[in-house]
Design goal:
single chain; Rossmann fold; 5-stranded parallel sheet; about 40% helix; globular; binds adenosine-5'-diphosphate; binds magnesium ion
Length: about 220
């Protein structure tokens, strides 16, 4: 529905604008395959028969972020295979089910979508790049996985700065996951990710879930 100024607003009865927005951002999503079924409920917080503190902290941080994402960032750092992407998917699935247009995308997928937009623009002369970048900058909730897994270049660094600086200045809800140390990033990006007024940083130091005995999975 349209408000008095002619802006598109969600209809309180049918939620049509939210559904439209969810579809619009989901077009770029890395939420597919197993990710659709990854939830907070099927995330295990036990290891070797005991509650594991790091897994419990990560689950709580992800649940907390998904219940109040407004003006907050959650940054999760850790080695491969210990459930970081699972929690990204769980946050996205939770928010989307609640009607929030959350975009779960890996940094390599985001850059590939922008490269594709540049090709499209060159071939069709239709503006594509700015609109797509705008979608990523303004997604109601952005869940950016695998930061640092992109082949880094000056271009990718400038995209990352533009994206995160915009979201930082506008206090837009953002979850960032990486297996790189935060100091490995452009210092301007690292500093924004660690701003304690906005961002919660959690370490996931759990071992690789894929190497667990089947009886513990
Ligand atoms: N604590 C956990 N509980 C249940 N499944 C898990 C847990 N940690 C990891 N997994 C599963 O192990 C696999 C690898 O986890 P993933 O989230 O992709 O790791 P990461 O992103 O940290 O490299 C996925 O299938 C995921 O569902
Ligand atoms: Mg991952």
């Amino acid at each position: 529905m349209l408000d008095a100024e002619g802006n598109l607003k969600p209809c309180p009865q049918c939620g049509v604008a939210q559904k439209w927005k969810i579809k619009a951002v989901d077009a770029y999503s890395s939420r597919m395959g197993a990710a659709v079924k990854q939830t907070f409920f099927n995330f295990k917080t036990t290891f070797q028969g005991k509650e594991d503190e790091t897994l419990t902290d990560c689950l709580e941080a992800a649940e907390e972020f998904s219940s109040h994402p407004d003006a907050r960032w959650l940054v999760m750092v850790g080695e491969r295979g210990n459930g970081k992407s699972h929690l990204c998917a769980a946050v996205a699935n939770h928010l989307i089910a609640a009607g929030t247009a959350a975009l779960f995308i890996t940094m390599p997928d985001l850059l590939a979508a922008l490269r594709q937009a540049m090709d499209l623009q060159a071939n069709t002369e239709q503006e594509s790049y700015t609109g797509r970048m705008q979608t990523f900058k303004t997604a109601p909730v952005l869940i950016l996985d695998d930061l640092g897994a992109e082949g880094r270049s000056d271009w990718s660094d400038s995209v990352l700065f533009e994206l995160l600086d915009f979201r930082y200045r506008n206090r837009l809800p953002t979850m960032i996951v990486t297996n790189c140390a935060l100091d490995a990033f452009d210092p301007r990006v690292a500093s924004r990710m660690q701003d304690t007024a906005l961002s919660t940083v959690v370490e996931n130091s759990a071992p690789d879930f894929r190497k667990r005995p089947l009886s513990e999975r």
